[in-house]
Design goal:
This is proline dehydrogenase. With 304 residues, the chain is of the alpha/beta class. Helices cover 52% and strands 13% of the residues. The chain has an eight-stranded parallel barrel, surrounded by six helices. The chain is globular, with a radius of gyration of 18 Å. The chain starts with a helix and ends with a helix.
Length: 304
């Protein structure tokens, strides 16, 4: 049943018709629990509030899979404005982005030009930029661009998804660059030809790549709400005397608030992924697909 629900929400997330409908009723559907508003000002206010609680953030202007140069340019300009706002407000924040929002599907060079502009601005402000990983079809080109950017910038990182068979090999190959990586389980629907179909295998691989990347001495952002994984990571860094400067825990805005605050209380760095913008539907559907409890939250809000 859980698998059917997951596939259903991932299917809806790709529907343009449902997306258009949902934008009109987003708050009624409960999107505001997971998305920090539609405007940059909303995002900065949320980041400031989380900072006061002891949490740092990464801001993400939602958008993906653009198909026109005009849309890619607009997305890039919004990302540059977000960097300006982070700098001007002095909130403690990184920036996250998806390269399909910058024209990756139009042409690699279109995306690269925007990435260079963004990283130059971010370097000027001393802001770190995280390239989010998307579906498997974009995995190799994302890592190719990431490696190219690492030859010019040290303020850029990317993401490795544990549900992909290739994750361990990617960690080993990227080690030569000493990269800052966010490690996640993965939230897209993928074929069992490229991804572990069984949750237990994903969890096992997730723990494996966390330990591998930490063991390599590279900065590790452990992005999960799975308390068992978090506990295992805490035990591992304690056993290996790994400095707290080498890792952080990352959680999504609106999910596991008590866990976030508890980790801060224990002295760990906690970074909250804070998405904002009008193009929130695909992201929202992936959150519902990940956690059945989120579905009940939405249903309760719909009938209030």
């Amino acid at each position: 049943m859980e698998s059917i629900m997951r596939n259903f929400f991932l299917f809806l997330g790709k529907s343009k018709a449902v997306n258009t409908f949902a934008k009109k009723f987003g708050h009624k559907l409960g999107a505001s629990k997971f998305v920090a508003g539609e405007t940059l000002q909303h995002a900065i206010e949320t980041a400031s509030r989380l900072n006061k609680d002891g949490r740092v953030v990464t801001l993400d202007h939602l958008g993906e899979f653009v198909s026109t140069q005009q849309d890619a340019n607009a997305s890039a300009q919004m990302i540059l404005k977000t960097l300006d706002a982070i700098h001007d407000s002095q909130v403690e924040s990184h920036l996250s982005l998806k390269m399909t929002s910058l024209g990756l599907d139009i042409h690699k060079d279109v995306c690269l030009k925007h990435m260079y502009d963004i990283l130059e601005r971010a370097k000027k402000y001393n802001i770190f930029v995280r390239i989010d990983m998307e579906d498997f079809a974009h995995c190799q080109v994302t890592l190719d661009i990431f490696k190219e950017l690492l030859t010019h910038y040290d303020n850029v990182g990317s993401v490795i998804q544990a549900y992909l068979y290739r994750a361990e090999d990617d960690i080993k190959e990227l080690d030569a660059y000493h990269p800052n990586l966010r490690l996640v389980k993965g939230a897209y629907k993928e074929s069992d030809k490229v991804a572990f179909p069984d949750k237990q295998d994903v969890d096992t691989n997730f723990n494996k790549i966390i330990k591998l990347h930490l063991q390599n001495g590279n900065y590790t952002a452990i992005a999960t709400h799975d308390e068992k994984v978090i506990q295992q990571a805490k035990q591992y860094v304690d056993e290996k005397n790994i400095s707290s400067d080498q890792f952080e825990f990352q959680l999504l805005y609106g999910i596991c608030e008590d866990l976030q605050k508890q980790l801060v209380k224990e002295g760990f760095k906690v970074r909250v992924y804070v998405p904002f913008g009008v193009d929130w539907f695909g992201y929202f559907m992936r959150r519902l697909a990940e956690r059945p409890a989120n579905v009940w939250f939405v249903l309760k809000n719909m009938f209030k």
